[in-house]
Design brief:
Number of strands: 14
Order of helices and strands: EHEHEEEHEEHEEHEEHEHEHEH
Strand content: 15-25%
Number of helices: 9
Oligomer: single chain
Largest sheet: 8 strands, mixed
Radius of gyration: 18 Å
CATH superfamily of the largest domain: HAD superfamily/HAD-like
CATH class of the largest domain: Alpha Beta
């Protein structure tokens, strides 16, 4: 089988629960590189956040970051593709979220998208508070009462684990892409990630395939673990989810061992017989 590109999620898929990587998975990535297979990590993390868990020489070729808002060539750390929302659209999103009393963060354009302005409605939201504390050196309160002046890479609204609330809110703004992710902080809260309409992990992978590597969908393997991986899992028939994925995803895709049991390597071995 001619596989030319492998894409994997990071948190909860390639990375173990303790924040480390198995020797087996690192070995698999290195062998893929020797075979000339393009290696992609597709993550919701920003480049700054990713750099906290991946070494500069980590064995991949591209980083699709912020759920597809940007693409980094890993060896040179050069940005090859970015997306952003215009200020007027950002203001529409801000007004909508404030009206509904939702806590959120507005992230600066790439490459400084680890900086953000935040709004809190004053309700108890431990996950929001923990994320704010985690990145407090990059956070400033949102100035209310004046139009938002700049473009943004994304808006992240942090909700309780309430699917009904998420589904109700997601229909409130047109012209954007809304991606659901499970909080990597508490493992329960819903992160409603709002992007330009064309952004997703799948769109980032497609951009690499079409513009840089000449790869077709039948030549791709994808491994994921969460709802924000759904688009890229739909790219190809060679899609896998790890055992620790939500039940809804496990009903739709081939299940491999968990992120703590080198499920990534299991998936690659299943397809390539490595």
């Amino acid at each position: 089988m001619s596989i030319r590109l492998v894409a994997t999620d990071l948190d909860g898929t390639l990375m173990r629960s303790n924040g480390e990587f198995s020797v087996e998975d690192i070995g698999t990535l290195c062998r893929l590189g020797k075979l000339g297979v393009v290696r992609v990590i597709a993550t919701g993390r920003s480049p700054y956040s990713t750099s906290r868990v991946l070494s500069p020489d980590f064995p991949i070729d591209y980083l699709v970051f912020s759920s597809g808002a940007g693409i980094l060539k890993w060896d040179t750390k050069a940005l090859v593709h970015t997306n952003e929302m215009p200020a007027a659209l950002v203001q529409t999103i801000i007004s909508w979220l404030c009206f509904h009393g939702i806590d959120f963060m507005v992230h600066n354009p790439i490459p400084l998208n680890h900086y953000f302005q935040y709004f809190t409605a004053g309700n108890s939201n431990p996950d929001f508070e923990r994320r704010l504390n985690l990145y407090k050196e990059f956070a400033t309160p949102l100035i209310q009462g004046v139009p938002y002046p700049n473009p943004a890479s994304q808006v992240v609204a942090i909700l309780p684990n309430d699917e009904g609330m998420f589904n109700s809110l997601r229909s409130g703004v047109e012209g954007v892409k809304i991606i659901r992710a499970t909080s990597p902080i508490d493992g329960s809260s819903i992160w409603m990630e709002i992007f330009p309409e064309t952004v997703s992990k799948a769109s980032g992978i497609r951009w690499i395939c079409q513009n840089l590597e000449g790869v077709t969908p039948d030549q791709i393997v994808v491994v994921g673990n969460d709802y924000n991986d759904s688009d890229m899992l739909q790219l190809t028939a060679h899609s896998f989810v790890v055992e620790n994925a939500p039940e809804l995803l496990k009903k739709s895709y081939t299940v491999v061992p968990s992120n703590d049991s080198s499920g990534f390597s299991y998936a690659i071995n299943k397809v390539l017989g490595m």
